[in-house]
Design brief:
The complex is a heterodimer of chains A (133) and B (100). With 133 residues, chain A is an alpha/beta fold. Chain A is 21% helix and 25% strand. The chains are: A alpha/beta (133), B alpha/beta (100).
Protein backbone atom coordinates (compact mmCIF):
# COMPACT_ATOMS: atom_id res chain seq x y z
CA UNK A 1 0.00 0.00 0.00
CA UNK A 2 1.24 3.47 -0.85
CA UNK A 3 2.48 5.52 2.06
CA UNK A 4 2.26 9.26 2.43
CA UNK A 5 5.71 10.80 2.18
CA UNK A 6 6.40 14.43 3.04
CA UNK A 7 9.68 16.06 2.15
CA UNK A 8 10.34 19.14 4.25
CA UNK A 9 12.60 21.70 2.59
CA UNK A 10 13.99 24.20 5.06
CA UNK A 11 17.17 25.63 3.54
CA UNK A 12 18.05 28.08 0.79
CA UNK A 13 19.56 26.69 -2.44
CA UNK A 14 23.29 26.78 -3.34
CA UNK A 15 24.64 27.89 0.06
CA UNK A 16 24.35 24.31 1.29
CA UNK A 17 23.74 21.00 -0.50
CA UNK A 18 20.43 20.23 1.23
CA UNK A 19 18.12 21.63 -1.47
CA UNK A 20 19.73 19.66 -4.29
CA UNK A 21 19.92 16.48 -2.21
CA UNK A 22 16.23 16.75 -1.35
CA UNK A 23 15.28 17.17 -4.99
CA UNK A 24 17.30 14.08 -5.95
CA UNK A 25 15.69 11.99 -3.21
CA UNK A 26 12.23 13.20 -4.23
CA UNK A 27 12.82 12.23 -7.87
CA UNK A 28 14.16 8.81 -6.92
CA UNK A 29 11.33 8.31 -4.44
CA UNK A 30 8.74 9.28 -7.05
CA UNK A 31 9.66 6.16 -9.01
CA UNK A 32 8.25 4.02 -6.17
CA UNK A 33 4.72 5.30 -6.67
CA UNK A 34 4.13 6.60 -3.18
CA UNK A 35 1.89 9.52 -2.25
CA UNK A 36 4.46 12.31 -2.26
CA UNK A 37 4.11 15.85 -0.94
CA UNK A 38 6.70 18.60 -0.66
CA UNK A 39 6.70 21.38 1.89
CA UNK A 40 8.81 24.52 1.75
CA UNK A 41 9.26 26.41 5.01
CA UNK A 42 11.72 28.97 6.34
CA UNK A 43 14.57 29.62 3.92
CA UNK A 44 13.33 26.60 1.95
CA UNK A 45 10.88 28.89 0.17
CA UNK A 46 13.87 30.50 -1.56
CA UNK A 47 14.39 27.25 -3.50
CA UNK A 48 11.37 28.09 -5.65
CA UNK A 49 12.22 31.69 -6.61
CA UNK A 50 12.06 32.31 -10.32
CA UNK A 51 14.91 33.72 -12.39
CA UNK A 52 17.75 31.77 -10.76
CA UNK A 53 20.88 32.00 -12.90
CA UNK A 54 23.95 30.27 -11.56
CA UNK A 55 26.39 30.85 -14.42
CA UNK A 56 28.27 33.34 -12.26
CA UNK A 57 28.93 30.96 -9.36
CA UNK A 58 29.94 27.84 -11.26
CA UNK A 59 27.20 25.64 -9.82
CA UNK A 60 24.53 23.59 -11.52
CA UNK A 61 21.21 25.45 -11.67
CA UNK A 62 18.71 22.85 -10.49
CA UNK A 63 15.75 25.27 -10.27
CA UNK A 64 14.26 24.15 -13.63
CA UNK A 65 13.96 20.62 -12.22
CA UNK A 66 11.10 21.72 -9.94
CA UNK A 67 9.01 22.27 -13.07
CA UNK A 68 9.44 18.56 -13.91
CA UNK A 69 7.93 17.37 -10.62
CA UNK A 70 4.45 17.37 -12.13
CA UNK A 71 5.56 14.77 -14.69
CA UNK A 72 6.63 12.57 -11.79
CA UNK A 73 3.15 12.89 -10.30
CA UNK A 74 4.41 15.12 -7.52
CA UNK A 75 1.49 17.54 -7.50
CA UNK A 76 1.25 18.70 -3.89
CA UNK A 77 3.74 21.43 -3.14
CA UNK A 78 2.97 23.28 0.07
CA UNK A 79 4.58 26.66 0.68
CA UNK A 80 4.25 28.18 4.12
CA UNK A 81 2.62 31.60 4.01
CA UNK A 82 4.32 33.00 7.12
CA UNK A 83 7.76 32.11 5.76
CA UNK A 84 6.99 33.92 2.52
CA UNK A 85 5.80 37.03 4.34
CA UNK A 86 8.84 37.12 6.60
CA UNK A 87 10.99 37.19 3.45
CA UNK A 88 8.96 39.78 1.56
CA UNK A 89 7.96 37.21 -1.07
CA UNK A 90 4.66 36.62 -2.86
CA UNK A 91 3.58 33.81 -5.18
CA UNK A 92 4.62 36.05 -8.09
CA UNK A 93 8.23 35.68 -6.96
CA UNK A 94 8.05 31.90 -7.28
CA UNK A 95 8.08 29.65 -10.32
CA UNK A 96 4.65 28.75 -11.63
CA UNK A 97 4.58 25.00 -11.13
CA UNK A 98 1.80 22.96 -12.72
CA UNK A 99 0.74 19.37 -13.26
CA UNK A 100 -1.59 17.81 -15.80
CA UNK A 101 -4.69 16.07 -14.48
CA UNK A 102 -5.25 13.07 -16.72
CA UNK A 103 -8.71 12.54 -15.21
CA UNK A 104 -9.76 15.95 -16.53
CA UNK A 105 -8.42 15.79 -20.07
CA UNK A 106 -4.91 16.76 -18.95
CA UNK A 107 -6.03 20.11 -17.58
CA UNK A 108 -3.12 22.09 -16.15
CA UNK A 109 -3.44 22.67 -12.44
CA UNK A 110 -1.31 24.60 -9.99
CA UNK A 111 1.01 22.49 -7.87
CA UNK A 112 1.91 25.17 -5.35
CA UNK A 113 -0.49 25.67 -2.48
CA UNK A 114 0.13 28.52 -0.08
CA UNK A 115 -0.72 27.26 3.41
CA UNK A 116 -0.63 28.75 6.88
CA UNK A 117 1.42 27.26 9.71
CA UNK A 118 -1.75 25.78 11.20
CA UNK A 119 -2.73 24.17 7.88
CA UNK A 120 0.77 22.81 7.40
CA UNK A 121 0.72 21.36 10.90
CA UNK A 122 -2.36 19.34 9.92
CA UNK A 123 -0.73 18.24 6.67
CA UNK A 124 2.34 17.05 8.57
CA UNK A 125 0.09 15.26 11.05
CA UNK A 126 -1.51 13.27 8.23
CA UNK A 127 1.76 11.83 6.85
CA UNK A 128 3.31 8.40 7.32
CA UNK A 129 6.93 9.37 6.65
CA UNK A 130 8.57 12.78 6.98
CA UNK A 131 12.04 13.58 5.67
CA UNK A 132 13.72 16.88 6.41
CA UNK A 133 16.31 18.65 4.35
CA UNK B 1 39.33 52.17 4.01
CA UNK B 2 38.74 50.69 7.41
CA UNK B 3 37.55 47.19 7.91
CA UNK B 4 35.74 44.73 5.67
CA UNK B 5 33.26 42.32 7.23
CA UNK B 6 31.94 39.38 5.27
CA UNK B 7 28.68 37.55 6.04
CA UNK B 8 27.77 34.40 4.11
CA UNK B 9 24.85 33.05 6.16
CA UNK B 10 21.14 33.69 5.77
CA UNK B 11 19.92 36.22 8.37
CA UNK B 12 16.96 33.91 8.98
CA UNK B 13 19.08 30.91 9.90
CA UNK B 14 22.07 32.33 11.71
CA UNK B 15 22.96 35.25 13.96
CA UNK B 16 26.06 36.06 11.89
CA UNK B 17 24.62 39.32 10.54
CA UNK B 18 23.43 40.41 14.00
CA UNK B 19 26.81 39.63 15.51
CA UNK B 20 28.53 41.51 12.70
CA UNK B 21 26.32 44.60 12.90
CA UNK B 22 26.69 44.65 16.66
CA UNK B 23 30.45 45.04 16.39
CA UNK B 24 31.06 46.72 13.02
CA UNK B 25 32.24 50.31 13.42
CA UNK B 26 31.06 53.29 11.43
CA UNK B 27 32.96 53.57 8.15
CA UNK B 28 33.41 49.85 7.73
CA UNK B 29 31.96 47.79 4.90
CA UNK B 30 29.83 44.65 5.16
CA UNK B 31 29.92 42.38 2.13
CA UNK B 32 27.01 39.95 1.90
CA UNK B 33 27.64 36.83 -0.14
CA UNK B 34 26.38 33.23 -0.58
CA UNK B 35 23.20 32.89 1.55
CA UNK B 36 24.06 36.21 3.19
CA UNK B 37 22.66 38.02 0.15
CA UNK B 38 19.08 37.46 1.30
CA UNK B 39 19.66 40.11 3.99
CA UNK B 40 19.92 42.71 1.21
CA UNK B 41 16.44 42.14 -0.20
CA UNK B 42 13.49 44.47 0.33
CA UNK B 43 10.38 43.80 2.38
CA UNK B 44 11.83 41.17 4.69
CA UNK B 45 11.52 40.91 8.45
CA UNK B 46 15.23 41.76 8.74
CA UNK B 47 15.44 44.59 6.17
CA UNK B 48 15.40 47.18 8.97
CA UNK B 49 18.67 45.91 10.36
CA UNK B 50 20.49 47.10 7.28
CA UNK B 51 18.42 50.26 6.85
CA UNK B 52 19.23 51.29 10.43
CA UNK B 53 22.94 50.46 10.38
CA UNK B 54 24.17 54.05 10.14
CA UNK B 55 27.63 54.65 8.79
CA UNK B 56 28.07 51.11 7.51
CA UNK B 57 28.54 50.54 3.79
CA UNK B 58 26.88 47.47 2.37
CA UNK B 59 27.89 45.47 -0.67
CA UNK B 60 26.44 42.32 -2.21
CA UNK B 61 28.20 39.77 -4.36
CA UNK B 62 26.22 40.02 -7.62
CA UNK B 63 26.75 36.46 -8.90
CA UNK B 64 25.31 35.07 -5.64
CA UNK B 65 22.25 37.34 -5.84
CA UNK B 66 21.77 36.40 -9.49
CA UNK B 67 22.05 32.67 -8.75
CA UNK B 68 19.27 33.02 -6.19
CA UNK B 69 16.94 35.01 -8.44
CA UNK B 70 16.83 38.03 -6.12
CA UNK B 71 18.74 40.63 -8.14
CA UNK B 72 15.61 42.70 -8.76
CA UNK B 73 14.71 42.71 -5.07
CA UNK B 74 17.93 44.19 -3.70
CA UNK B 75 17.46 47.26 -1.51
CA UNK B 76 18.58 50.69 -2.71
CA UNK B 77 21.95 51.92 -1.56
CA UNK B 78 23.57 48.53 -1.59
CA UNK B 79 26.54 48.26 -3.90
CA UNK B 80 26.62 45.21 -6.15
CA UNK B 81 30.10 43.85 -6.81
CA UNK B 82 31.46 40.96 -8.86
CA UNK B 83 34.35 38.71 -7.82
CA UNK B 84 36.91 41.32 -8.94
CA UNK B 85 35.05 43.87 -6.83
CA UNK B 86 35.23 41.48 -3.86
CA UNK B 87 39.00 41.27 -4.30
CA UNK B 88 39.24 45.05 -4.57
CA UNK B 89 37.30 45.49 -1.33
CA UNK B 90 39.69 43.10 0.39
CA UNK B 91 42.73 44.87 -1.05
CA UNK B 92 41.43 48.32 -0.07
CA UNK B 93 40.63 47.30 3.49
CA UNK B 94 43.10 47.23 6.38
CA UNK B 95 41.78 43.86 7.44
CA UNK B 96 38.95 41.44 6.88
CA UNK B 97 36.71 39.78 9.41
CA UNK B 98 34.72 36.81 8.18
CA UNK B 99 31.55 36.20 10.19
CA UNK B 100 30.65 32.52 9.93
Amino acid sequence: MAKKFLYMNTKAPYGTIYALESLEVVLIGAAFEQDVSLAFIGDGVYQLTKGQKTDGIGMKCFAPTYAALGDYEVTKIYVEKESMEERGLTLDDLQHLVWEDEDEDYAEKDSIRLVSKAELADIIDGQDVIMSF
Amino acid sequence: MAMLHTVNKSPFQSNALDACLGLAKSGSTVLLFEDGVYAATVGTAVADKIAKANGINFAVLGPDARARGIESKLADGIKVVDYDGFVELVAESDKVQAWL
